[in-house]
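User: Please predict the structure of the protein below. I'd like the answer in structure-token form so I can feed it into my own downstream comparison script.

Assistant: Understood. Taking the following sequence of 237 residues as input:
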Amino acid sequence: MILTLDNWESLLHDGYEMNTSGTTGEKKRIFQPPDKLDSANLVALEVQGITKGSRILTVGDMARAAGALAQTLPALCIGAKVSIQEFDALKFCEEVRAFTHTHLSPEQCEAIQKTASFAEANFDGLFITIGGDNLSFDIIKALVGRGATVMSNWGMTEIGPIAINTIFRTVEQVEEYRQQAIPTGTLMGDQYHCDYRVKDGCLFVKGSTCVTDGWFNTRDLVAVNDQGAMYHLGRGA
């Protein structure tokens, strides 16, 4: 089932199955219970500052948690404006000016940066959430440099789309985190919206946004630096 502007209320009420992306293992179908969706929505709204007056541009895959659950469903639940469009890097810098929030993948960010319009882009007032284990500080810096507030975010279909993150508002902040980074890792974040523990280098999580009870083994290999920021190092067996 794919969430749309027409069926979101019934899916929120009844829950629905969603495919995992397959980037972290074999593709699976995960049922999202209504109580889990409610909890994940509350986290997403608070962390990203989404209100009824927000305007959401969704250009992600609506069959995936990032596209459907990170911003789209939470915004719809409170009556915020949501526009679901096909991603077009050439038009993005102009079209996004009418919105307050969007969610992008690192690949989409790189495509936007390669367009001629990016050099003159004005992202003042825009909150961009970016998820993916290949998000670089260069990507974050480029968008913050155009005026955006950028949130580096980690989540999974099984535990909620907004789980561990850091919000960047200045280029100086980006450079500070770059200097503190674990060289072989990708930043996940230093703000935690679920319980977590690291055992033998592997991340386990639990909480109200998780679809399972007890500790869930993400199979992500992670490390935490001296400042408390978690970094993704790869996948375990």
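That's the full token string. Residues 8-193 form a domain with the Rossmann fold fold (CATH 3.40.50.980).
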